[in-house]
Amino acid sequence: MSTETPDTAGAGDAPADGQPLVRVDGLEKYFWENNSLVDRLLGDDPVAVRAVDGVSFDIQEGETLGLVGESGCGKSTTGETLLRLQEPTAGRVEFDGQNVYDLEGSDLTEFRRDAQVVFQDPFSSLDPRMTIGEIVQQPLAVHDVGTEQERERRVRELLERVGLSVEQLDRYPHEFSGGQRQRIGIARALALDPEFLVLDEPTSALDVSVQAQVLNLLDDLQAEFDLTYLLISHDLSVIRHICDRVAVMYLGEIVEIGPAADVFEDPKHPYTEALLESVPRASTDEQDREIETLSGDVPSPRDPPSGCRFRTRCPKVIPPEDIDIDRAAFRAIMDLRERIEGRDISLETVGEDGQFEFEDGRLAVGDRSEFVATLKERVLDRDLPARDDAIVEEALAELAASDWEAAAERLRDEYETVCERQNPPLSGTGTETRAGAGTGTGTGTGMEKAGPSSTSDGSSADEDHPVACHLFAESGHRAPESDSR
Ligand code: SF4
User: Fold this and answer.
1) Which of 110, 296, 352, 391 is the most exposed place for a label (fewest CB within 10 A)?
2) 255 close to ligand 1 (CB < 6 Angstrom)
3) Nearest CA-CA partner of 454 in 463, 467, 445, 446
4) Dihedral pair phi/psi, residue 92, rounded to 5°
5) What is the pLDDT of residue 298?
6) Where are the alpha helices (DSSP H) in 99-229?
7) DSSP letters for 85-128
8) Pairing between strand 245-250 and 253-259?
């Protein structure tokens, strides 16, 4: 099938040698709450919801970059913002060397032709009042491409290419299965002969049996039409199926990026490790394996944790240097601290009916040490070293007087982790630099993030940021005592 639409030839020339087709640099997208006129009159300060918070990556022509992470981590907002479906808060996106946020007039129209999107939900993304012929033809009509006959011919070609019959042209979306509707969405995205597609969870609404068909179709179309993809998915198996490189997102930030084989076989970031660990294994040999699960929920992007954003869930969160405690025990104490800081423990329901009672916020009925022991049994699932056990009991005793702040302070004083003061820069240990990150040929750790990878005195950035634990393991450096910022 010819992919030339009547007058789209020449739209978006190939990028210069070595230039990525897409370059995202420090992209931020914040949504604002409490930002209405009434809020301002009432003196409420606007609150930023940091959906995307300083994301940088490149995508080379013909490459598929996977963007993976849990729901709500900012993947789709990244895709929409780089396509300029949403305006950014800060940062720059270059497409074919041009800043897309500076484009106007015919340049913007050309970008809109060259960069298309396939949406997640094939049920809601198609207008139920239009036939599929009209749906696929719509972008051609909007961009005034070709004559009526040329458009109709183009629609027929596209439908056949995505595996649908031209006999179905006059049917409506509800007459098709989920997989067929996604094929219609793909045909619509291809109508203007784009160079770049953002595939936003393209298979997550489909049955497993259909997912592979759609992924194989996307793979074939990429080779046939020289397409470049950003594939957004929470599903690691989907990412693994067709991606050349993978970027892992957590709470608005990219925490790891590198060639797919490296990231899957040798993940560096504890979050990536945990994501991979959580994938069910078919092998019976691995059924009894210990899974290092993530604790807690993803924090709110309204108030992300200080330092490393993953610290509230990280199984490898770093204990203070002077404390000798195993990783799991320290994680359990940090989880307890999180719950106390979030006042997320129901004190009134501790013990049997009538065993403990509170009046005016204090334990009025029941023995205080018994209360502490019962509460500890409920909120800690493991034994601690004697010293730490005593500290935790002191903190829990403060809760007998409902003094949440004193309880939190006791744990904070004792167990402040370097991870809450510093955010690892994720650069510097490997050979995959910002400039070479998009090549997919990095031979280092596979980590990258915009920003300097060395300091003025020539030391590597990870020496400056010892909290980059996952980089540290490789470089053999040791974390200094503390380094507040
Ligand atoms: S910096 Fe700390 S919390 Fe963040 S990933 Fe590394 S060990 Fe975990």
Assistant:
1) 352
2) no
3) 463
4) -140, 140
5) 87
6) 105-114, 132-142, 148-161, 178-190, 208-225
7) SS--SEEEEEETTEEGGG--HHHHHHHHHHEEEE-S-TTTSS-T
8) antiparallel
Q: How does pLDDT run across 361-404, given as a tens digit for each residue?
A: 888 888 999 999 999 999 998 899 999 999 999 999 999 889 99
Q: What is the value of pTM for the model shown? A: 0.82
Question: Which of 308, 482, 485 is the pocket-test mutation for ligand 1 (most atoms within 8 Å of CB)?
Answer: 308
- The number of the ligand 1 atom at minimal distance from the alpha carbon of 424 is 1
Domains of the chain: 22-271 (3.40.50.300), 327-416 (no CATH)
**What is the per-residue DSSP string for 256-297?**
EEEEHHHHHHS--SHHHHHHHHTSPP--GGGTTPPP-PPPSP
One-letter amino acid of 128: P
Amino acid of residue 361: G
* CA of 406 relative to ligand 1 center, distance in Å: 26
CA of 37 to the centre of ligand 1 (A): 40
Cβ-based neighbours of 122, under 8 Å, separated by 6 or more: 178, 181, 182, 184, 185, 205, 206
Measure the CA–CA gap between 323 and 392, rounded to whole angstroms: 14
Most distant CA pair in the chain, distance: 86
Instruction: Please check the confidence at residue 477 and state whether its pLDDT lies above 60.
Output: no
CA of 55 to the centre of ligand 1 (A): 18
Q: What is the pLDDT of residues 72-117, one digit of tens each?
A: 899 999 999 999 999 999 999 999 999 999 999 999 999 999 999 9
Least reliable range by pLDDT among 87-91, 133-137, 154-158, 415-419: 415-419
Pocket lining: 415 vs ligand 1, CB cutoff 6 Å = no
440 pLDDT exceeds 50? no
